[in-house]
Amino acid sequence: MPSLRSSSTNKTDRIWIIYALGGGWGHLTRALSLARIAARNRSPDSSNRRTVKILTNSPYLSYFQAQDLADVKFLAIAPDVDLNTTCNRVREILLNSNCDCLIVDTFPRGLGGELADILPELPHLPKILIHRDLCPEYVLAKNLRSFVVRHFDAAIVPGEGEDVPLADLPIVRHTSPWLIRNAEELNIDRSRQLLRITSEEPRKTILVYTSGKLSELTLFGAIARSLVAAFPECTVRCLAPVLPPQCPSDIWVSHWPGIECLPAADIVVGGGGYNTVSESRALGIPLIAFAFKRLYDRQLQRVSATSHAIEIFDGRDVAYYVSTLIAAVRSLLNRTPKSTIPHYENGAVAALQAIEQTILLRSDSNTNRDRS
Amino acid sequence: MQIRLIWTDPNTGEQRQPQLETPIAIGRVFAEMPAEIEGKRVSRIVLADDRIGNYHALIDIFDNELVIADRNSSSGTLINGVRLPSSTLINGDRLQIGAIEIQIQVSTIRAQTPAASGQWTCDRNIGFLIPRTCGRTDRTGCPHCSGDPNNDPYFSDRSYYAGYGSYNRGYWGSTYYYDRDYYQYDPVTGNVDFTEADNASLEMEGDTDFEMDMGAS
Fold it and tell me: A188 with A310, same domain?
């Protein structure tokens, strides 16, 4: 039977694999926020470097800028292949790769349930779950409580609060949200440059911060167009990987990571996904969030703490969303703009320490077991 | 050995009469009852009554006799009105467990089955949710054996529920298969009798196909 080979015989590198399958930007960006810090910081037990490999089927992979990710490697699976092919590919990769630690983002059993068969074949490998919020129906339907306890050494909640399923398990640790940039890496002038804001006039900037599925760009495009018409006194920009339908091309910006564009924004209009909400909160920028329906993620719950949440319903007219949005924007325009970037804690740093501790504990445990 | 338990659900007023293979565990919490005893799959009956223990009693064959054993429950088990720690059961016996009275029907069908006497029986799997062996001795009037797929009583259901008949991990049917002891079976056809609640559950499953979409988030 094949097994994930430990790379412990290799004295130069520690290899971590992050399972980050899933649609949208969220899983991949969260994985990268940890990976870049893990790859840059040396392991505390030696001078060994860490090599972090991200297993992904994200359709957005090609949009990432390669120069930023020199320390991170990707194990890419095509986003358009069927479920069985993807699951088989995951199995093939995991059981034939050198690895010292497996980190699974969001889905303990894997997005297709494929890890349920793979994890038991990796008994000596430390396994960490990144526990983003999940809908309780899924947790119940797949008996995730017992599965997580049985197969994972630790579960880290990346700033999703206490009110997530499984948060009461003894193996759970909480950190601040994981962000792809630390506060000191952001700059307001650079942000203005990225958003092509040249005017010296004190104009407010409304940033439409697209995310989610490519098919949802249509709504964001219509929203951006409406904001331009409704607020001629403001600068409106739409950050998206491709020009959204209906969006005026002169306000479209394509840049990754999007957080670098945020400091120049006075109001953010986006989805209710993990990164949009975490980033705008960290920077103290008011977010008007559209809560999209997802199979696993509870966007409405996440954005309920923000000042303006707009729930997306099937079949509701775009005009409704636009009118609701415009009213919300109006209510926020009188706020005094921030002149500096607030300091925030990047939870990925604490997560790195927690993972290292877990690996050390596991290593001691394995050693003791081998001796006995 | 198969026996039928007949009782009326005090919460719904609905009569239940599943025919089950021994051993049969009775209790209030499904997970507290054993899934297997000595390699035999246990039929688990869940009764919603606070006076019933999590794992209240076990019905099984001992020395070729059908026996019920109370699992040291606080409210006890009454057999024909008498509280006993264990007792042999025969056809027509009445059990009192919590507030629920259960009648025992000991099936003698197995001993008289055509298969046992060498007669042909249909071994086709029938039923929508949990396929069961047909067991008919005559194809006359059988919708499954007519050769016309339109006669399949579950034709539209099969079309609607993708993955029908797959009970492996990851398919929606796996949970139903795991919980198959909960369902009530038609004594003649062996098909599952759906309640409105069952149907509602299935509709929810159709809308939430967890672990079926590799682009979900």
Answer: yes
